[in-house]
Specification:
28% of the residues lie in helices and 37% in strands. The protein has 457 residues and is α+β, with helices and mostly antiparallel strands.
Length: 457
């Protein structure tokens, strides 16, 4: 499923589940909507940045239940973990943790502070454990987002706002886009009838569609969420997608140099620096690393090809995440080193065993005293003798091999040429050939298979 579509669906389902399940447990007497405390002294009047949001609530450092195991890397705006217990106990733990930090419980499963809304959902697994999910929705309420003047409110809540209008879908979508851009929101991807806009660390999702059941009117739905990394999006790219679990922006384009230039210049204004002026291959993927004084990291990489264009990924990692990764690497280093050493020792042992298995015996060959060696290698000796001396030399060689325990397989030493083949248990063999015309020097050759020859006189 498409990442953006999946993100939207999951966000909506989490909110609905939180309101339904947790509301059943704690909803008695609660309000239908979170209290709007944007007028408080410490409220942020504009869409918050990641840094501003983290000062209010950093879910990457939020307390976990005893024995809990994070299911995804905790982020500023998102926390998801597995814990032992029941729904009521788990929700109560997180309720107390939020209240202890000054948050006000304004609705079932929702908490507000300084204009921010946090959803808490607890899902039982049926085995005595629960999934706990906390999501910061940011400090921009859907009902505060710009709407075309002719749109009428159908429902306005903390997690979503719905409107309807008689204007056409295309015209309404254009009107919404123009209104958002005019208020400083930056287009941040789209999918079908849904468009995403970003301002600082707040994402607003705008869905404009036809409503046949409403007499053909056009419906407008707004949802919002806080993101854990403010990753800038290059202009004129396609298939722009953002996910927050973990924070990553992806898109396609044909111009790699333009993307590198954009990020080097844009990130530099925010204090990010790269130690390289071009992408280098990391795991066979062109990659560039950026770091900032807060010890955070952005990884720009070409991860593949999509529809004939380069697929880029910009992955954010927090200082906490990097420190935890380094800690785990350091902790695992002795085991990895021991495993590597054990593997090297095993490979060395196997290599030695193979070498021993393939080791060939050295076979001494005593040549006639008057032999003249023409050519000699590890497995071959070629020499000459005076004419008419071949047969005697071959007989001498045959005796040497018989005395050393070699088996004679073939022997033909009559006439002007001949051949003798001897072998030994285990595979080595030696072949002796000669040529003796009677009027030219005699030529003899001793060649070995799976054995090395050592000539001596």
């Amino acid at each position: 499923m498409d990442k953006v579509f999946c993100l939207y669906c999951r966000a909506v389902m989490r909110k609905v589940f939180a309101a339904c399940v947790i509301g059943c447990l704690f909803g008695c007497g609660s309000k239908n909507q979170a209290a709007d405390d944007t007028t408080s002294a410490d409220a942020i009047k504009t869409p918050a940045t990641v840094e501003q949001a983290a000062k209010v609530l950093d879910l990457s450092t939020f307390p976990l239940m005893d024995g809990a195991k994070p299911l995804e890397s905790p982020q500023v705006a998102f926390l998801f973990y597995l814990a032992t217990g029941d729904v009521k106990t788990a929700f109560e733990f997180n309720r107390k943790a939020l209240l202890a930090q000054g948050w006000k419980e304004s609705a079932s499963g929702m908490f507000s502070r300084s204009g921010f809304i946090v959803f808490v959902s607890v899902t039982p697994n049926g085995d005595g454990s629960v999934h706990v999910r906390l999501q910061n929705q940011g400090n921009v309420k859907p009902g505060k987002l710009p709407v075309p003047p002719d749109a009428k409110a159908v429902y306005v809540g903390d997690s979503t706002a719905n409107y309807e209008t008689a204007a056409a879908v295309a015209a309404t979508a254009d009107a919404c886009r123009n209104l958002f851009v005019a208020q400083g929101w930056v287009p941040y991807g789209n999918e079908g009838d849904t468009a995403v806009f970003k301002q600082n660390a707040n994402l607003a999702t705008v869905t404009v569609s036809s409503a046949p059941a409403q007499g053909g009117k056009t419906t407008i739905q707004y949802t919002n969420q806080l993101i854990s990394a403010d990753i800038p999006a290059p202009p004129n790219v396609e298939d722009l997608r953002y996910v927050d679990e973990p924070p990553e922006l992806t898109f396609t384009t044909a111009n790699q140099d333009a993307i590198v230039d954009f990020y080097r210049k844009t990130l530099a204004t925010a204090g990010w620096k790269s130690t390289m002026d071009h992408m280098v291959d990391v795991d066979e993927k062109p990659t560039m690393i950026f770091r900032n004084p807060a010890k955070e990291m952005l990884t720009l990489a070409v991860t593949g090809v999509l529809s004939g264009k380069l697929l880029f990924s910009v992955r954010f990692q927090s200082a906490t995440e990097i420190a935890e990764r380094d800690r785990k690497r350091k902790e695992a280093a002795p085991k990895l080193r021991a495993a590597a050493e054990a593997k090297a020792a095993q490979e060395a042992k196997e290599a030695a065993e193979l070498a021993e298995k393939n080791k060939v015996p050295k076979v001494p060959v005593t040549l006639p005293a008057d032999a003249k060696v023409v050519k000699q290698t590890n497995d071959s000796i070629k020499f000459t003798l005076g004419k008419g001396k071949a047969k005697a030399a071959v007989e001498s060689l045959r005796k040497q091999f018989r005395d050393a325990g070699w088996k004679e397989d073939v022997a033909s030493v009559t006439g002007m040429s001949g051949v003798v083949h001897v072998s030994k248990e285990g595979g080595p063999s030696v072949t002796i050939t000669y040529s003796d015309t009677g009027f030219m020097p005699t030529e003899l050759s001793v060649s070995a298979f799976r054995a090395e020859l050592e000539a001596a006189k």
